Amino acid sequence: MLYQITGKQIDIGEALQTHVKDGFDSVINKYAERPTDANIIFSKSAHEFVCEATVHLSTGLTAQAKAHANEIYAAFDSCSDKMEKQLRRYKRRLKDHHRERSEPVELSGASSYILARGEESEEQEPDSLQPIIVAEMETKIPSLSVGEAVMQMELAGAPVLVFRKEGQDGLNVVYRREDGNIGWIDPQM
């Protein structure tokens, strides 16, 4: 498995890199078959260290975890525990997913935009209805079944996931509702 271990404004030493590789190897190989790569980023937020990990599986699914701690090793250990919990929770479905799917998840390109938040008060009307674009990025939209989309949303810890339903052309959305259930938007063509 390919590891990319980096630090934002932090020097990452060999001992930490070895600790990360050993820790993730044991967790990922136990629960996921054929992981392709892992991206681990360490940063500092005030007095705490932050560890963010993203693991890409060969099927196209992605698992993400993030943790904070006062020490950098503790931040990684907490992040690793969260990743293990996610993968353990979905182990059966991940293994079944490998058997059912002979090819990796198909991804199609799309643009993703970050819009500036309006600073107007409730009484004041905005000057224009055109939003200010702060950033533009490339993103990928996977072709998944609804069950796989829900699993991917849960693994990524995301509140919403846009996907292309296998066998259909239109876009679908799954999202976490306020009542804790999952919502699914399936537009009719």
Task: Explain what the structure shows.
- This is Ribosome hibernation promoting factor.
- The chain is α+β, with helices and mostly antiparallel strands and 189 residues long.
- The protein contains four helices and nine strands; from the N terminus they run βαβββααββαβββ.
- The strands form two sheets. A five-stranded mixed sheet has the order 5-6-7-8-9. Strands 1-2-3-4 form a four-stranded mixed sheet.
- The longest helix is centred in the first third of the chain and has 18 residues.
Largest sheet: 5 strands, mixed
Radius of gyration: 19 Å
Strand content: 35-45%
Query: How many DSSP helices?
Result: 4
Please estimate the helix content: 25-40%
CATH architecture of the largest domain: 2-Layer Sandwich
Query: Uncertain runs with pLDDT below 50, 5 residues or more?
Result: none
- By helix and strand content, what is the structural category? alpha+beta
Biggest sheet, spatial arrangement of strands: 5-6-7-8-9
- Termini separation comes to 41 Å
Question: By CATH's scheme, which homologous superfamily of the largest domain applies?
Answer: Ribosome hibernation promotion factor-like
Structural domain tally: 2
User: Regarding CATH, which class of the largest domain?
Assistant: Alpha Beta
Shape by Cα distribution: globular
Order of helices and strands: EHEEEHHEEHEEE
Could you please say which CATH topology of the largest domain applies here? Double Stranded RNA Binding Domain
The total of beta strands comes to 9
